């Protein structure tokens, strides 16, 4: 078995790649009222998408398992999710800010704060 040590140039390439992934995500979420990062077979992702569609929102949807940079974006979202209790997908961004996952979106919907957030972001006009 051969052990390959990570060189500083390999780390720099990895860091550079993550910076470009971060920049891609930043541009995507800042340029769209609502962005949802999902996995195509995830039932909770489906629930969030159907809720938003039902409210009249047309979110930008990125299915990570069908995106060439999906694994890297998934890793970035895992960092955003934070405490390890929350799953990294679905990840919902509203008005350029990370709202959260299924728990947060459903809580906002139930307590009546989701629609005002969507209106403020320009995702709803009524």
TrEMBL record:
GO terms for cellular component: cytoplasm. It is found in: Cytoplasm. It comes from the Eukaryota. Residues 34-98 form the Glutaredoxin domain. The keyword tRNA-binding does not apply. Keywords: Cytoplasm, Redox-active center. InterPro entries: GlrX-like_pln_2, Glutaredoxin, Thioredoxin-like_sf. Pfam families: Glutaredoxin (PF00462). Belongs to the glutaredoxin family. CC-type subfamily. PANTHER family: GLUTAREDOXIN. This is Glutaredoxin domain-containing protein. It comes from Solanum chilense (Tomato).
